[in-house]
Specification:
The protein has about 525 residues and is an alpha/beta fold. It folds into 2 domains: about 240 residues, FAD/NAD(P)-binding domain; about 220 residues, no CATH class. About 30% of the residues lie in helices and about 20% in strands. It contains 16 helices and 20 strands. The strands form 5 sheets. Strands 1, 2, 3, 4, 5, 6, 17 and 18 form an 8-stranded mixed sheet that branches. A 5-stranded parallel sheet has the order 7-16-8-9-12, with helices on one face. Helix 14 runs parallel beside helix 16. It starts with 5 loop residues before the first strand and ends with a strand. The structure holds ligand NA7. Ligand NA7 binds next to helix 5.
Length: about 525
């Protein structure tokens, strides 16, 4: 038996996407020895894996980018209102080079376990290449949507064609021309991929379980004059965005939908439908708190679907009956229009459940659909999946999987009691997926960096939340969510897409309020955390 040599570091970061890259940069600037482990063969995280046709961000490029370096944000040229996956991946590779990060990133390596040692107040981390590392700080920068959800159907292995998951798309791309293709799922990824696959494939079958609301993205090349105007005072755009509920410019109105006339409401919805994208949800202040108000927006979009989709029955199937925005609002380019194509068939999985995969395709509602390829656009084990994929053991050997068996518990979404010096970037209980991810990531990374700098300068060896603070935070997150319509549907925000996953509303609603609280907690000497003296 050989014993692996343990190599010492100050910090280990898991992941090299937006979060991991910036965390690595900041910790190195503090003078720490750091190594980032990344499962992919390149940097980029979500933008490395999600290469399906049409993959694109639905927060505007000028806001979905780092702001920590003004030189970077001045130099980088985004070309479109909403960046495509290849452009974002180029940007992240540029960041890795520009800040000389690659030397401290180990690619194609998974972190398998991390065990806290009480005595030394350090983490022992094991990696898939047989490596063993010891570090004081262990930081999960694993992303909220990285652990894929691949439902199991009977006969899965018998299918002779190709299968793909949108979140694990082949790097060389896929040519669907002349092929019969099935897409399972109609979430954001499918909504982006379906129009492009339909253009290429001989025939496309879309298997829909729940119809989704989607607003046209109205993507377009960026106007250089507009870019120059923003860059002249980029800080102004950033600070305006930081004051918005989701941390990006949703142009949120203070006016309630129910306080204006129907005519005014419809005019505002029409304006937002025409300008496109997720800011549709910011049309009125009560859209996510009042069902009656929400119905007015939902009915507007339902009418648009009926207007666009020519076949009554298909339009009806595509029309969501749910609260608009309760499941993540989608943003598209010609999604509903695609169902007017003669080579596209919509199959309602609720009335015709998928029974099995067969050698030649799949059967649903007793009908066999012969296809050459199946695309699983079935989403992710969101927010906790990637965290729990690593066997993390805190004080007294307690497994994180055990601690979170009834649902995740954190303080600020940044840390969890019993696991000292373990930090999550955009963890459950933080704004994360209900905010613009990049500023949220930067805020967390800045907070964690400042915390680590404080621990080092004040001679403390460890920090962890106390249980009271953690319990109070869970109540607080829920209280805010319960005042909205978010918990009223089966979304992945509450873990409803994964069979057996505990139902807990995970994101914190309200980016500005969150930042204020996180800052105040730090300013009050890390209120709610226990800090231990140097070992
Ligand atoms: P989503 O939004 O979770 O969508 C997954 C879709 O797959 C959704 O329509 C699901 O229906 C459907 N699904 C999942 N499992 C099944 C089974 N077993 N049978 C049929 N249909 C199924 O994932 P996306 O990748 O589209 O988007 C995730 C986020 O990534 C997105 O919001 C952006 O932030 C980026 P359901 O609605 O659960 O009935």
């Amino acid at each position: 038996m050989t014993t692996a040599t343990t190599r010492d570091l100050d910090a280990i970061v898991v992941g090299a996407g937006f979060a991991g890259l910036y965390m690595l940069h900041r910790l190195r600037s503090l003078g720490l020895t750091v190594r980032a482990f990344e499962a992919g063969s390149g940097v980029g995280g979500t933008w490395f894996w999600n290469r399906y046709p049409g993959a694109r961000c639905d927060v505007e490029s000028m806001e979905y980018s780092y702001q920590f370096s003004d030189e970077l944000q001045q130099d980088w040229q985004w070309t479109e209102r909403y960046s495509s996956q290849p452009e974002i991946l180029r940007y992240l590779n540029h960041v890795a080079d520009r800040f000389d990060l690659r030397g401290d990133i180990q690619l194609e390596t998974r972190v398998e376990s991390a065990v806290y040692d009480e005595e030394s107040a350090r983490w022992t981390v094991r990696t898939s290449d047989g490596g063993q590392w010891s570090a004081r700080y262990f930081i999960m920068a694993t992303g909220c949507l990285s652990s894929t959800n691949l439902p199991k159907f009977p006969g899965q292995d018998t299918f002779r064609g190709q299968t793909f998951h949108t979140g694990r798309w082949p790097h060389e791309g896929v040519d669907f021309s002349g092929k019969r293709v099935a897409v399972i799922g109609t979430g954001s990824s499918a909504v982006q991929a379906i129009p492009l696959i339909a253009e290429e494939a001989e025939h496309l079958y879309v298997f829909q379980r729940t119809p989704n609301f989607s607003i046209p993205a109205r993507n377009h090349p960026l106007d250089p004059a507009e870019v120059a105007r923003i860059k002249k005072d980029y800080a102004e755009l950033r600070s305006r965005a930081a004051g918005m509920p989701f941390g990006f410019n949703t142009r949120s109105e203070e006016v309630a939908a129910l306080d204006v006339s129907e005519q005014e409401r419809l005019a505002e919805y029409e304006r937002r439908w025409e300008s496109g994208g997720l800011p549709f949800l910011g049309a009125f202040s009560d859209l996510i708190t009042s069902r009656e108000a929400n119905d007015t927006a939902a009915d507007f979009v339902r009418a648009k679907i009926r207007e666009i989709v020519r076949d009554r029955e298909v339009a009806d199937l595509l029309t969501p009956r749910t609260v608009l925005g309760c499941k993540r609002l989608c943003s598209d380019t010609h999604y509903y229009e695609t169902f007017n194509r003669p080579n596209v068939t919509l199959i309602d999985v609720t009335s015709r459940p998928i029974e099995a995969l067969t050698p030649g395709g799949l059967t649903a509602g007793g009908v066999e659909y012969e296809v050459d390829a199946i695309v699983f656009a079935t989403g992710f084990d969101a927010m906790t999946g990637a965290l729990l994929a690593v066997d993390i053991r805190g004080r007294d050997g307690l497994a994180l999987r055990q601690k979170w068996s009834e649902g995740p518990r954190t303080y600020l979404g940044l840390a969890t009691a019993g696991f000292p010096n373990l930090f999550f970037i955009t963890g459950p209980g933080s704004p994360s997926v209900l905010s613009n991810m990049v500023p949220s990531i930067e805020q967390h990374v800045n907070w964690i960096s400042a915390c680590i700098a404080y621990l080092r300068s004040s001679g403390k060896s460890s920090i962890e939340p106390n249980r009271d603070a953690e319990n109070a935070w869970a109540l607080h997150v829920n209280e805010i969510a319960d005042a909205t319509l978010y918990p009223t549907c089966n979304s992945w925000y509450i873990g409803a897409n994964i069979p057996g996953k505990p139902r807990v509303f995970m994101p914190y609603l309200g980016f500005p309020e969150y930042v204020e609280k996180a800052d105040a907690i730090a300013a009050n000497g890390y209120e709610g955390f226990e800090l231990s003296a140097q070992k």
